[in-house]
Design a protein that fits this description.
This protein has 532 residues and is an alpha/beta fold. The chain has a domain of 100 residues: ANL, C-terminal domain (GMP Synthetase, Chain A, domain 3, 2-Layer Sandwich). The chain has 15 helices and 28 strands. Strands 3-2-14-13-15-16-17 form a 7-stranded mixed β-sheet, with helices on both faces. A 5-stranded antiparallel β-sheet has the order 1-20-21-22-23, with no helix packed on it. The protein has a 5-stranded parallel β-sheet with strand order 5-4-6-7-8, sandwiched between helices. The radius of gyration is 23 Å and the shape is globular.
Length: 532
């Protein structure tokens, strides 16, 4: 069968051959005392020489505690400068890093610690009790705290010599990062990202975004997620740029930081783009330093993209697209041009994309919709301890089935239309329906449950549940029961009760039918309100 393959207009980049700590050390050697990381909340400025020293100190301190190749260090903390020193130090020591959302519950943290096999957990003083509870029954032998807390190792005690240990040799094929993703379906799984995946992606991103030492970026997306780590931490630090951290989102605070620190490149999820387009607060701040605004995490409509571009005429506005399994990217915007309205950009360097009819398996032509398949050096080596799931994700020729429905026009612009996969994106944060369904199934009143996405003007999507009950339960109490066991962005926002869930002959849930029924019901509610 003939393959119709789209490739990049950008020159190829070198693949692998280094580690992220090495790239950051190289940047530190060329930019002098330029700030690497700024924490406005704490009034902390970390220069590049200090960052390089901290990376070496953490690496040596970890090795002194027996941490090294084959081990995983977990970080459960908001976006703070210490994230970089700890993560890169663990990588320099030969180990890998798994980031856990700072909003994770005890259950969620414990699950990721067990699955990743993490031996060290780094967290904050306010989360120390949760950390102690979550580490019970896991392989974690040390809890390191970014500060001080009883019964935990203070980060200061972890710092060893500032000179890197010359005997440590890290292969670029080794595991470096283990973010968790649901992929195209199912429960969250560890995505194996190698050093080569990371450094190649940094170089690929550079072709389009062209971030340099003169740039300042605002780190709003969580470092625990692939977009936050790769686009607002790894890439700018490798370029010698300055990263201004935000521990939590607040629109007015974000705008003030952009103005105060003269942020030049801003990467945010679609809900923040909506605020930039419409919120009256935007007019109160000087945002003329912005040269590039990029939306990522979920597709952005052409109308909203144009609205942002109209309000920020001094900045190029665009989108990028990818997934955790592509180490963040498959397409990128261009720093000077942004992207065509509604497009998620063009194919990244060293990358191939196919559009495949999900029914026939036929390769589609220009402007024909189909599932987007990706192949390139940024594609993960597979899921952690999940060979069956890896085989479903990536075929024998290395093509990753993204689960996204899209098209590519004659100019090479990529458009994402819908998702074939089940993942729900709440303000660009991934929520796995299977995780919430499994939780609902634990409630004594629930006989069967499905979780589906519902469009939301502020968050993009929110999870709603459709349940069949075995006994009477108050819906508000059911939602509160779930809310107590998940991070805030995973909370179920509505519940619909049915006699039975639609399932096929094999027992497979007919999720699309539920989504269509919910959208029809929502449309009917709007019509009723208008009639009143």
């Amino acid at each position: 069968m003939t393959k119709n393959v789209w490739t990049s207009r950008y020159e190829p980049v070198p693949v692998g051959g280094a580690t992220l700590p090495e790239l950051v050390h190289q940047a530190a050697a060329t930019v002098g005392d330029r700030p690497a990381l700024v924490d406005p909340e704490a009034g902390l400025v970390v220069s590049y020489p200090l960052l390089a020293a901290r990376i070496a100190q953490v690496a040596n301190g970890l090795r002194a505690r027996g941490f090294g190749a084959g081990e995983v260090l977990a970080i459960c903390a908001p976006n703070v400068p210490q994230w970089a020193g700890v993560a890169l130090g663990a990588m320099a020591a030969g180990g890998a890093v798994t980031g856990v959302d700072a909003l994770a519950t005890e259950r969620e943290l414990a699950t990721q610690l067990r699955d990743s096999g993490a031996t060290i957990l780094v967290t904050t003083p306010v989360a120390i009790e949760l950390a102690r509870a979550a580490t019970a029954g896991t392989a974690v032998r040390d809890i390191v705290v970014l500060g001080d807390a009883d019964g935990a190792v203070p980060i200061a005690a972890l710092l060893g010599r500032p000179e890197p240990d010359p005997v440590v040799c890290v292969d670029d094929r080794d595991l470096a990062l283990l973010p968790y993703s649901s992929g195209t379906t199912g429960l969250p799984k560890g995505v194996r990202i190698s050093h080569a995946n990371i450094v190649t992606t940094v170089r690929q991103l550079d072709r389009g975004l062209r971030v340099t030492a003169r740039d300042t970026m605002l780190a709003l997306p969580p470092f625990s997620h692939i977009m936050g780590f790769m686009v607002t931490l790894a890439m700018p630090l490798a370029a010698g740029a300055t990263v201004v951290t935000m521990a939590r989102f607040d629109l007015e605070r974000m705008l003030a930081l952009i103005a105060r620190h003269r942020v030049s490149v801003l990467v945010v999820p679609p809900p923040v783009m909506a605020a930039l387009a419409r919120h009256p607060l935007v007019d109160r701040f000087d945002l003329t330093s912005l040269e590039l605004v990029v939306s990522g995490g979920a597709p952005l409509g052409a109308e909203l993209q144009c609205a942002v571009a109209s309000r920020l005429p001094h900045a190029a506005v665009g989108q990028g697209w990818g997934m955790t399994e592509t180490t963040v990217g498959a397409t990128i915007p261009d720093r000077d041009e942004g992207t065509a309205p509604g497009s998620v950009g063009r194919v990244m360097p060293n990358t191939e994309i196919r559009v495949v009819d999900p029914v026939t398996g036929r390769d589609c032509g220009a402007d024909e919709p189909g599932e987007l398949w990706v192949r390139g050096p940024q594609v993960t080596g597979g899921y952690h301890n999940r060979p069956e799931a890896t085989a479903v994700l990536i075929d024998a020729e290395g093509w990753l089935r993204t689960g996204d429905l899209g098209r590519i026009d004659a100019a090479g612009d990529v458009f994402v239309i819908d998702r074939l996969k089940e993942l729900i994106k709440v303000a660009a944060r991934p929520v796995a329906p299977a995780e919430l369904e499994a939780l609902l199934a634990e409630h004594p009143a629930v006989a069967d449950a499905a979780v589906i996405p519902r469009p939301d003007p502020e968050r993009g999507e929110v999870p709603v549940a459709v349940v069949a009950l075995r006994s009477t339960v108050d819906i508000d109490e059911l939602m509160a029961w779930v809310a107590a066991r998940v991070a805030p962005y995973k909370r179920i926002r509505d519940v619909r009760v049915v006699d039975a869930l639609p399932r096929g002959r094999s027992g497979k849930l007919l999720r699309r039918q539920l989504v269509e029924e919910d959208r029809l019901a929502q449309a009917g509610s709007v019509r009723d309100e208008l009639a009143l």
